[in-house]
## 1
Amino acid sequence: MKENKSNLRAILSGNWAQLKDVTDSMIVDSLTKRINEKKAQIIASINEAAEHKTGGTLCGKVNRKVIDGKPHFPISDADHGRNALARVAQTAKHDWWDGTKEELVAAVKKAVKAKFPSIDKDKE
C-alpha cells in the first residue's frame, strides 16, 4: 500500500525514475486525471475570457459587434420594437457598434421582424 502511494506520487510529479512495480493502467489513470484537471482549468479560463469579450446585447440578444457590453435597442414589446426601428436610423454612426450603420439597421430590423412579424418595418 505504501509503495503504491509513493508510485502514485512519482507519477503525479512526473518523476518516472522513482517508479516501482507500476502498471500501465496506473500510469494511464494518473495521466488521464492530470489531463482532465488541466482541461477543466483551460475551459474555465476560456469561459471567463469569453464573458469579458462577449459583446453587449442588441434587441435583447448577445451580439459581438456591440463593443461596450451594454444593452441597446431593447424590444420587450411591440412599442419598443417600433421605437428601436425609429431610433436606429437617427444617428449616423453609433460609437458602441463595430460595424457599418447599414449592418446595424439590418440587424435591428431583422430582430424586430422576428419578434413582431405584425410590425410593417417599411412603414416605420
Note: The first strand starts at residue 57 and ends at 58.
## 2
Amino acid sequence: MKNKKYIMILFSILCIICFFGCEDFYEPNSILDSSSIYGTFNLQISEPKSSRTIIPVVQEEYLLYRLVFSTGGQEDIIYERMINTITNTITLPAATWNLTVTAFIDSEKSKPIAQAIMNGIIINAGNNTSRNLELEPIIETGSTGTFVWNISFPSSVTVASVTITPDNLLTGTARQKLFFKGGTPLVSPNNYSTPLNLRTGYYHVEFSLSNGEYETGRIEYLHVYKNLQSEFTYTFTQEHFISSSVTNGNNSGAGSLRFAIENAPNNSEIFIKDTVGTILLTGRIEITKNLIIQGNGVTITRAPSWTTINDDSQFILIDSNISVEINRVHFRNGRANNYGSAISNYRGNLILNSCIFSGNISYPVYSNSGGTIYNGRYSNADAILSIKACTFYDNRNDNTDGGGGAVCNNSSRATLNIQGNLFVAANYNATYTERYYYPIIYNHQGTVNSLGFNAVGCIDPTYNLVITIGTTNSAFSGWNSGVGDITMAGIPVSPSTFQPNSGSAVLGIITTIPDKYPMIDFYGRPINNNAAAGAVQSF
C-alpha cells in the first residue's frame, strides 16, 4: 500500500513538472521549440494578378484570417491572424502540409469573404519555408456589389472611357464600355452619387484617354463582393500622355520604348502607337516598376549595330519583385548566351498575352540556362510567368544537350502557367544523336501548369517529328497535358503572318473562352468562342 502511495505521489510530481515546463498547451505556435522536429513557416498574402487591384475598403482591414494546416495522420493545426500579424512566423512539425486560408470580415467568423488553398508545403526540420498566396473572392451566385470611381484628367483630353469586362463571362455582369468624354453612353467621371451595380466576381477595368496626339491609360483588376463597395480614385496628368506613349522605333530618346519604361510612373500603362511598326534595340531594357505594355502589334528586334551576344543581350530583363504585363508584342531574332534570348524573368510576376516569339536563339553553357524566356534564377524569390494566347515559332536552344526552345524554368520557386498557346518547335542540333531534349519547355526546377488548349507542332528539316505532350523523357514537350492540349505533325501556321493554315488542327480548339483569357489577338481582332490556339486568329 505504501509503495502504491509513493507511486501516486511521484506520478503527480511528474505531471506538475510537465505542466509548468511547457510554454502553453493551447497555443499551436508553442508546440515545441526543437529544431530537430520542427521548422518554421511565413505567409505573405499577395494581391491578385498585379499591384493594380481595386478592392472593397473592408478587405484592406480584414478582421481575421484563419489558417488551417492539414496533413495525413495528424490533427489539423489552426492559427488565427490579423492583417498586421499575417506574416508572423509559424512553427510546424516537419511534414508536407496543405494550407487553407479563409478571410473574414467579422470577429464571429460568420462572414467569409475570400479563400485560397495551397497544397504540398514542405516543412523541413530546423529550416524556414516562405510562400505567397493569392486569395480568391467567395462568390455567391446572384449577389451584387457596387463600384465607384473619381477620375480626373486634363481639359485637353478629347476621348476618355472605362471598359469593364468580367473574368467569368457566365457569372459576371456583361462587358460594358462607358465614356467620361467623347462618346456614348456618357457617365460622370465621379459616380459616387450613382454607384455602378455589378455581380460579384473579378473584373478587368481599362481606363483609356486620348488628347488627339498621345494616348494613355491604366488597367486595374476589380473585386466585387456581396453588398460591399469597391472604390477607385486616380488623376491623369499631362505627363502621363508624354511619358507613357511610344511614338517611334528608336532605341532611346523621347518617344522610344526605353524612354517610356524609364519615365512612366509606377503602376501605369504604356501604349505603343500602331504606326511604330518595329523597334530596333541596341541593348537590353530593364523593367523595375509595375507596368502594363500595350504593344498594338509592334515587333521588337535587334538593330544591325547590336552584334554583341552574351548573358545580358536579351531584349527584356525583370530582376525585381514587380508585376509586368506585356500584350501584343512580337519578339523576333533575339540572341543571348544564358538566361533567355528574348526575356529574362528572374523574380517578377510576368504576364504575356497574344505575343509572338520567333527566330530567337540562346547559346547557353549549361542546358538549364537557355530558353527564349528564362524564368526564375534565385532560390529565395518567386518567379511567376503566365503565357496565354501566344505563338512560339522556330526558337532554339543551341546547347548540344540544351532544352527549352520556348521556356527554361530554373528555380525551385519558379511557376509557369500556359494556356491557349501554339508551340512550333525547332530545337534540334544536327550533331546531337538524341536530336531533342525537352524541345519546348525545360523545367529544370519549379512548377509547370497547363491550363489547357495548348497546341504543339514541329519544324524539322529531316524528320518532321511529332512531339508528344508530357514529361516522360527528354523528347517530350516538357509539361503534362492539360484539357484540350493537342499535338500535330507539320507546320500549322504561316511563317510570315502566323495565321493558322486552312484546315489546321489549331483552329477551333478553344470551344469556350476560359476565364481571364485575352480578348484580342496580336493583330487586334477579337478572340471569341471556337478560337484557335496561339496569338493569331483566322483573318
Note: The CA atoms of residues 400 and 433 lie 9 Å apart.
## 3
Amino acid sequence: MKSAVNAVPFLCSSMSSMKTRSFKKPAWRVSIRQSLVLLFVLTYLAGPANATTWELQNGGLLVPNRATTITLVRTSAGKTPQTTQTVTSPGSQALPDRLWLTPADSANVVMPEYADVKNNRADVPIFVRGSRTVSIELRDSINGTSQTITRDVKRVANSSGEKPWLPRLTIQGEDGLPVTLANQSTTVVLELVPGAGAMPASAQIVVRDSRDRTVISRFFNTFELAAGSETITIPAAGEYNVITRLLADPTENLPRARYRTPVPIPYGQTEARFEVSEPRWLVTTQTVLGSRVALEQLPTTATVVAEDQMRMVVFGRHSNEIQRNHWPFAIAGSNLIDMPAAERQTWGVRLLKWQRRLGSSYAPVNVNWSAIQPNPGSFNWTDLNRTLPLYRKEMVRPLLTVTGPAAWEQNPPTETTATQMAWSTMIRHISSQYIPVVWALQPWNHPETVWKDPAQYAKFLLKTADAFQMPNGERIETPPLVTGSLAEFDTNYLGALLTPENKSRLGGIAFDLFPRYPQASPEQNGLERKVAYALDLLRSRQATGLKIYVTGSGWPVGPNGVTPELQANYLVRTHVSALANGAYKITWNSLCDSGTSGSSVASDGMGLLDANLVPRKSGVAYNLMTYALSGITDPGVSIQQNVRITSFNLPLQTNKWPGVIYVAWTNSPNQVQTIQLDMKHGGGVYAFDYLGAEVPAKKIRSVENDAIAGTYEFQIGYNPVYIWDAGKAPNRAPAGRKPVENTDEKTVWKK
C-alpha cells in the first residue's frame, strides 16, 4: 500500500537561489513610545489568547512503585476552555472529549494512552517504576493543544528515615523487549534498589490478561530471581499485566504447586493429569485456553514489602505454512529501498523480523523508475540487488510497485519508442531476475492521478504485460501483474481496465481501503461494501480468476483518530469482513510509528508498533488474528440476533488440527448478545477475544460418546471474539514424514 505519508518530510530552504537585495531606509520613523502604543492596540484588538493548559492538581505528588491516580485540570488564560465537540464522523457522531498521554519513558511509566475528560478534569491512573524524572506529553482532543509536564519522582522516607525497596522486573524477550511466545519458557530477572531492612526473601509474580483474569501466580526465591535463573511460561498469546510483589516471608512458608508450568490438555479430552500440593485452598487450578495451570495464592499473613507493575505481550507461534502464498496478511512500513544503505542491515532487518513475528510475510516495496533508470540508455540495479535479498533472507515477499515519472520526462510516460523500450526493458529485467523474491508487480501507484482517462492506463498495462515476452517471442515466468493501487475504490475506473486483452494478462486489481472518517467504524465507512463491489465487478466482467488486493487500510490512534482498543478492534473487523467478501491480500498501514528511524514514517499512531518497536494493542490483535486465521478457506457469514458471525474452515497445519473458526461481534458498542454454536469436531473448544483474553464457553447440549462436541453458548459484545472448533489429532504420521494438508478428511503426508 501506499500511505499518504510514506516518506520523511524535510523542511528545506535554499538560500543560494535568493538574489541579494538592497533596501532603502523608510521615509518615516517610529519612536519607542509610539511602538509600545501600537503593540498595545494590536494586542487589545486581537483579544486574549485561548492558551488552554493542563495542570496537576495539588502539585501532582508521585511516589515510585506505588499505584496512584493523578488529577489533571484544564485551565485557560482569558477565555473559557472550548468544550464543544466537533462533528466529523458519519451520522452526526460527536467526538469525545479526551486527554491523550504519552510518557517519554513508556517502559517505566505505566499509564493509559488517554483519559476521558469530564468537567475539564481527567483522572489518570499511573505507576512509575523507580525514582526518575517523568515527562508526559499531553494532547487535548478538543482544543488541539499540546504541552509537556515534568515531575521528579523520588523515594519518600518513613518516620524513621528509611526508604523502601524498589523492585523492577525485566523480561528477556524478543529484540530486548517484554515480548515473548506462548508456551515458551521466558527468563525473568528481578532488579532491586536496596531499601530499609534485609533483602526481601521471596517474590510473587502475578500475570493477568486484558480482562483481569489471573493466568499465572507463582512464588520465587528473591536471590534466584535476581540471578536470572527463573522462568515463567504463559499458556496463551495476548496482552498481559505483570505484577511483582516483594515479600518478607521465605518461600518455605508460602504455598507451592507440584506443577509450576502449564500442562496442556490433550485434544479430545477435558482434563489433564494434574496434582495439586496441599493446602488446596492456597493452590487453586483453572483452565487457560487448553492448558491447566496452578495458581499459588498469597496468604493473608504474608508481608508485602514493595510492588512493581509492567505490561507484557505474548505472541502466538505461527505454523510453518506461513510461507504459502495464500496467506492474506501484508504490512506496509518496512520499505527498505527508501532507507540509507547503512540502515538496511540494522534497522531495516529489525523491521522485517518484527513483521514476521506479527504474522505477515508480505510487504509493499515502492521503487521509483527514475532511481532505477537515470536515463534511457542506462540502469542502476544496486539498490534492488542489495535490498531484495534481505527480504528473502527474512522470508518476507515484496509486492513491488514501480512508479514514475521517468527521469527524463513528466507524467504520464510518453509513447515514444525510447520511453517504451526503456520501460519494457526494465520490467523484463525485474520480472526475470527477482521472481523468486517478488510475489506481485504493480505498474504505478495511484494511476488515476496520472492517467485521468482509464483507457490510457489500460493500454499502459497491456504494454507492461507485453514486456514479459522476450524479443524472440518466448514468454518468461513472471510474478502476477496487478493494477496500480487506486486511492479510492472506483468501479468505473477499474471496470475500464478489464479489457478482454488485459483480463488474460492481469493477476489482480488493487485499491486502498482507508476510512474516509478515521473516527468511525469500518461499517460506518462502508469498507466491506467496497470489497463486495469489487467482487461483483469481477463476476460481471467474467474475470473471477483475478484476485482482489486491498493495498492499504488503517486507523490512527490519537486525537484525530480512535482509541488503541478501537484501532485493534477495527483492524480485526476490516480484515475479517474483507476476507469474507473475497479479498486475496490485505495490507495494513503501518508497521510502526515514526521516531527511531525516519525511514519508517507512518502517520501519527497508525503503527502496529510504537516508535520504539513495542507492540501496541493493534500489534497484539494482528498477531492473534494471523495466528487464528492462518490458512483459512471457505468463508461464510451468518447473523444471530445482532451478532455478525463469520466462519472459516481451517485445514491441517503444523500447529493446529483441522476444524472451523468463527469470528463474532456486535455492531453496537454497548450491546452484548448470547449466541449458540454447534461444535462438531470434538478436539476442543477455545474462545478468546481480540486481545487474547479467554471468553467463557457454556455447554448447553452434549453429543453422545463425545466429551467435547455439542452446542455451546457465548457472550458476544462489540470487541471481536474468536471461537475455534478444533478437530482431533490425525492418524500418526508415517516414519520420517509430516502432515502438509488435509483434503476430504484424508491426511496427506510428505517426506
Note: The longest helix spans residues 341-358.
## 4
Amino acid sequence: MTRSATRATGRAALRSSSRCLTDNRNRTAGEVRATFTKSGGNLAETGAVSFMFDHVGVVEYDAKVASADAMLEAAIEAGAEDVVSSESGHEIYTAQDSLREVAKALEAKFGEPRKAALVWKPQNTVAGRATSRARSCSS
C-alpha cells in the first residue's frame, strides 16, 4: 500500500488537500482528478495548497465531558496551544511533538477522548454546503 497526497483548487478558489491509501497510485490520482473535474475544480501544483494548512495534533472530547472554561484551563495546564469549544464538543490543538503528552494529561482528567490524532488544520475556513459528490478514495 502507498500513500497518495493530492492538492486541488475547487469552485470559488476553494483549496483542498486529500490523502489516500492505495495499492495503485496512478489509478487513485486519476479518480481524484476526475472527481475534482466533475465538481468544477482541478488539481493544483505541488506546494500550491499545502502552505495553507498546519500539521497539528488534535484531541477531541464531547461537550458533556466538561464546561468550556474547565476544558480550557486543563488544556493550558497540559501544554495545548488552542481550544475550540462548541455545542458539538471540544477541540484541543497542540504541536505535533506534544500531542501524546497533552492527550495523556487530558485523559487522566476527563477520560478517553473521542479522537486524538495528527491532522492538517486549515489556516482559514469558509462556510460551505454539503454535497452528495463527496467520495472515498478507498478503491
Note: The chain has two domains: 2-48, 52-122.
